Amino acid sequence: MSGTPKIRLRGLTKRFNGKPVLDGVDLDVAAGEGMVILGGSGSGKSVTIKCILGLIRPDAGTVEIDGRDVLSMPRREREAVNDRIGMLFQNAALFDSLPVWENVCFKLLAQKRITRSRARDKAAEVLAQVGLAPSVGDLSPAELSGGMQKRVGLARAIAAEPDIIFFDEPTTGLDPIMGAVIDGLIVDVVQRLGATAVSITHDMASARRIGTTAAMLHKGSIIWTGPAASLGETGNPMVDQFARGEREGPIQMELRR
Ligand SMILES: Nc1ncnc2c1ncn2[C@@H]1O[C@H](COP(=O)(O)OP(=O)(O)OP(=O)(O)O)[C@@H](O)[C@H]1O
């Protein structure tokens, strides 16, 4: 990797109740890369992302964003870093009490970076980027289908034009066609912003579509990184078993022990 990575994790360690979840995670994400983190349920994918976002403090290790150690930063500086980060949550996590347009511009409004009337226009602009009509802005999230909620969640993730975006299982709960549509939108918006994307997914078709690079988390560390397009044919028996969803293989054998 040439130049400073956008995100650099070194020796990230986290235990919960004495049980190691992260046990020395090393990972570099280059600027503009689409990194997909794979791993079994409970392998620590969300904990890794939460450590990067500052929602969980690791027991040891470093998190650098643009070459700066974000764990030792004063709170204000850390908040400024987080202002450059967008997040699409698994269940879209929209506020039902607010119309769609306020959801989309929630962060900009909360930080008083935009007036309410400008926010309505901004929301319409961003909704258009995810294929939604301006009239959707006046609906309540409860009135939307799952696919539309994901689009609104995506619009909210990009409204502040972040340079890093996290996607937590973006296609979970969607039919395969809608999943492909959301993936296509993700690729479009990430490219338009020139952003760095980090995604968690169990959906291998989605991983190949939205990822340029994939990393597999297993037993607390990254055991493989490589091109997302090679998933299933990486030559690493654990990664290939996982990507192909095969019952038999080295991972199953470890679980039986
Ligand atoms: N705040 C917490 N307190 C205690 N244990 C936690 C906490 N957060 C996560 N864990 C534990 O850490 C482990 C990893 O959780 P994590 O949510 O990162 O898994 P994951 O890889 O994202 O799984 P999934 O694919 O099922 O979402 C789990 O055993 C979980 O119970």
From TrEMBL:
Which InterPro entries does this one have? AAA+_ATPase, ABC_transporter-like_ATP-bd, ABC_transporter-like_CS, P-loop_NTPase
What Gene3D superfamilies would the database entry show? P-loop containing nucleotide triphosphate hydrolases
Task: State the organism named in the record.
Answer: Teichococcus coralli
Task: Report domain ABC transporter positions.
Answer: 7-244
Q: What is this protein called?
A: ATP-binding cassette domain-containing protein
- Database matches in Pfam families: ABC_tran
PROSITE patterns listed in its UniProt record: ABC_TRANSPORTER_1, ABC_TRANSPORTER_2
**Source superkingdom:** Bacteria
A molecular function GO annotation: ATP hydrolysis activity
Print the keywords alphabetically: ATP-binding, Nucleotide-binding, Transport
